[in-house]
Amino acid sequence: MKIGFQRSDHGDGFPLDGLGGTIAHSFSPTDGRLHFDGDESWVVGVVAGAFDVETVALHEIGHLLGLGHSSIEGAME
């Protein structure tokens, strides 16, 4: 697994869009890359105007493992 903070067009064919859009993306199990948008504000915990890196990482690692989105509220708790 490779995890990194990237900005805009970073060579994977899926450029990040800066503040307020896509905050991260990851690729299926055969690829194993997870990119956080380096233009966003990242924190550990809850801070207004920022994203919790642990929560977003958990979500994206689910995609790395081949999981889709759940319709069950609180599925990651």
Automatic annotation (TrEMBL):
KW Hydrolase (keyword) present: yes
Name of the protein this chain belongs to: Metalloendoproteinase 1
GO biological process annotation, one example: proteolysis
GO molecular function, one term: zinc ion binding
Chain ranges of the Peptidase M10 metallopeptidase domain: 2-76
Entry annotated with the keyword Zinc: yes
Top-level lineage group: Eukaryota
Keywords: Hydrolase, Metal-binding, Protease, Zinc
Transmembrane segments: none
